[in-house]
């Protein structure tokens, strides 16, 4: 069962927006055993859209377009779909009522003809309700193939996919199972890993595919299995992962969950009724924003002090000025003290602190660019570690966030395992 | 001058990563007058790659691939390129020395044959030096067309593009000029705007194209001009924007700069030697992370207190408990107090505070989901505004961040204009 995604609109091509929609669609389709084999971003031009649909139809069973469904002139998709399916637009009463309802509830200026005309849909399509917006999705069937047209606004598109598209695809098709398992490794580069696991890789069963996904200090190994019996697939993959431990057990740090690392931390803290806070210098609030991005964060996240300026470490965190003068702001001592103070001030069970120098210039410290200290304080005391994350500002910050999450996650795992 | 981008690798297709590389490439190419007409994401499969290259060659002058250049088995690109250009791999001495140098400096485990073999390049290509990694870019020319192959790791790719690819493209081609001007509007939806500017839009010169880019409470109108005389293009676009003011002058809030709104704020604060701090509840540290993402942030950003838990508003921000009990945490009074306290604690010239209820549940407040208060404190006092950003958690938070930046930006603009 193959799918292709076509994104329509100049804004992706000129780089004004990043295409996050396709990643979302890829993930959701994969979960139900539909494999995305191509993503194509094209201009909002009738001839180009028709050609892209024709090409996709030769390769895929399911063709999904996003974008090009707004009420204004630069949006040609609906008329193009009519031409493609030899169809005409007719007013869809239910969609019209939904549009009028949205205007009555949320929009202060009056409804216009252009808004009402969003309810004009090709007669052959099934309208997919857009809970959050005025442009509905559309579902077409032609020669055993399914075409779905979705609006480009991410949160509107996501809701239509979850509530309308995925359930319909599940009903429509018998799908093979796709099972992924992603092994997290830290400490070796991809070629060093490849070297150590060559024998294992050469002997992988045909149904199992391996991919190396290197990213900022870790390499994820993704095993993918396809087949008609889910339990056999899972068993085969687990079996291969067991064997993998003989080769690189020392660098395997866990498995990538359906859930992100912050969601796993959130889940455990909430379950244990524990709370966390942060004191951030080089990560500048990103660690807090990662924790607060989890729904229900107020159950476990107390808050953060972003002590970005050196003065804030004394003024707000109340760290002894002598200590700062003696050790400098980028030091194990000050980072530990930040964690200790955050835990105290927020009255949290755990606190994480980061300091460092992300570059491009050295700032208020002699520490080499890329130096980062991370400290974690809990009831047992404080641990602090020093890293060098290189000379690329954005990368240093992101690595510091990743490493902080990893350290919290490891601490939790050790607690779980009763160490 | 047309370009196409081909991204190679399963991780984009299964949604494991978002394709940020293409947006970067689109922007950089656009700046030098090269128009990206298609982006295609495909599997790491020799036959599929060859087909994609062939197709792209029929439409574009410049074909850029990213991904598929790691040292491990799932990377077939280099061999595919040899097949495509009827070429063979030969050792490139300069690249080999660079790889050995990187290993000697940054990598603790020994160099392997797989790493050294990254210096084996097709004999017909020019190697593009990869400052941050071991896989060089490759530049091919064939029948007046240019093919560039780049590694998929974003920071490696970006450096090669900036230092090697763009300068070579500039040398190689005479390009038409592309001029963009993006008008920022707030307060009306895209169809309402379209209705008001219809006459203007109908009379736009042929060389100028208009696109509507709606996003979370604002609609950007992007004018794009193409031609051989840059100064004529700029004049034509400015002229059209002047005319546009007659139609929607009341909702035009400025123009999209090359620089982001936070960079513009950063620039002005640094120039005026002013500092800012934040106290964040519903934005959970995102506002701080936006400010600290600007290089040189320590010149103007003092820090943030993320008082996410209700207790943190009293424990850390030291807001009077009676005040919290009387007004509730999501209120104009508490938000103002947060801004006032942040300004005091961080000793900053300006402070921004956010509170609100992003959902999905109501939390420690009776405020309706979507309610957000934003306050700004400076030497003249405190202003506070109330908003409702709807019922979608992620969107409420992002809108609160955008609106906070907009309010700071407006305050600065008023100061500049001497109001």
Explain what this protein looks like in three dimensions:
The first copy, chain A, is 42% helix and 26% strand. In chain A, a hairpin with an 8-residue loop joins strand 6 and strand 7 (137-142). Chain A has helices spanning 10-13, 21-31, 46-59, 77-84, 93-106, 113-116, 154-172, 190-202, 230-248, 261-272, 286-292, 310-315, 321-327, 332-346, 393-416, and strands at 2-8, 35-42, 62-66, 89-91, 120-122, 126-128, 137-142, 145-150, 177-186, 208-215, 218-227, 252-256, 276-280, 301-306, 350-356, 371-378, 381-388. In chain A, helix 3 crosses helix 4, helix 8 crosses helix 9 and helix 10 (261-272) runs parallel beside helix 15. The longest helix of chain A has 24 residues, at 393-416.
Q: Between the first and last Cα atoms of chain A, what is the distance in angstroms?
A: 46 Å
CATH class of the largest domain in chain A: Alpha Beta
> What is the count of β-strands of chain A?
17
CATH fold-level label of the largest domain in chain A: Molybdenum Cofactor Biosythetic Enzyme, Chain A
The whole-angstrom Rg of chain A is 26 Å
Fraction of residues in helix of chain A: 40-55%
Give the tally of structural domains of chain A.
Answer: 3
State the oligomer: homodimer
